[in-house]
Amino acid sequence: ARRLFGEACATRQDFSRFGPAFAAGLEILTPGDGAIVRMERSGNVLPLKATATDVLLRGRRRRLISLQNIATELNDQELAAWQTVIRVMAHEVMNSLTPITSLASTARDHVGEVIAHMPEDAPARAGLADAAEALDTLARRSQGLLQFVHNHRRLTKRMVAQIQIVPLRRVFSRLQRLLAEELKARDILLTLAVEPETLEAAADIDLLDQALINLVRNAIEALRDTPSGRITLTAWQERGGRAAIAVRDNGPGIPVDQREKVFVPFFTTKRQGSGIGLSLVRQIAALHGGSVTIGEAEGGGATVTIRL
Asked: Is pLDDT of 10 > 50?
């Protein structure tokens, strides 16, 4: 309860600070009932399963409400639904696009050969040149769509986490070396902080690297139009012993109404984004029994936090 609410709530009205829908949802619960209520906290929405029962305490009837965090379960269900949709879509689209791409490329090459052997003043030359250009456009766009579908099929691949004890300072240092050239090219300062310095996490090192690379590259893209760009990579130990990692930037931030949408496959706020980066990050966090949240960074910008 303290992890959810912080200081104890003394009255029903105190619940309203977690959002009117949350307070109303608890108010209508009756003994034996269950419902999903959503708590607004630090700019994020936390789904909770609420159940109610009545107890007799010192001669007085009390309403006891149990709250269970079901964010992980809902994320797992949502991910499974998206994987099914993408799997079916990819199968149907690739079945149709593959022969179209092949035929368009073959036809373009044939037309090109015909043009190459035609006299410069042949009447049909201009028309065939237009046809070759149209076929080239068709082949390139079909190939682009195939690549788009291929990229999103990564979300449907079953990942298995090989858990080991990972020193987070070492993970951060390796990431800094890997992205040094990209950061230098954009004149972005990357700052690392691990508290305590010896902090370790139980994680799949390759999947954790992949998640953090996605998040840092997202931050780099967000800082495209921001002078004196800064990214901070922080790790700390929360109460209960679990590790948390945050990627903060001083860019424009992510609007509140888009903070859940960015986890949806195909949705992107970037100029040339695929819309799968944050979906993969959430999937990796779920494999570790964790979660991903988005909030505001102090002084402006965005903060993406992974809790393992």
From this structure: no
**Contact in structure between 226 and 250 (CB atoms under 8 Å):** yes
Pull the structure tokens for residue 197: 């310095």
The residue among 57, 47, 53 whose CA lies nearest residue 19 is 47
Residue 227: cis peptide before it, omega within 30 degrees of 0: no
- At residue 216's C-alpha, the angle toward residues 212 and 220, to 5°, is 165
pLDDT in tens, 178-219: 899 999 999 999 999 999 999 999 999 988 998 999 899 989
Question: Are the beta carbons of 65 and 37 closer than 8 angstroms?
Answer: no
In order, the DSSP letters of the chain are -HHHHSSPP-SGGGGGGG-HHHHHHHHT--TT-EEEEEEEETTEEEEEEEEEEEEEETTEEEEEEEEEE-HHHHHHHHHHHHHHHHHHHHHHHHHHHHHHHHHHHHHHHHHHHHHHTS-TT-TTHHHHHHHHHHHHHHHHHHHHHHHHHHHHGGGGSPP----EEEEHHHHHHHHHHHTHHHHHHTT-EEEEEEESTT-EEEE-HHHHHHHHHHHHHHHHHHTTT-SS-EEEEEEEE-TTS-EEEEEEE-SS---GGGTTGGGSTT---STT--S-HHHHHHHHHHHTT-EEEEEEPTTSSEEEEEE-
Calpha distance 294→280 (Å, rounded) = 15
Cβ contact 39:45 at 8 Å: yes
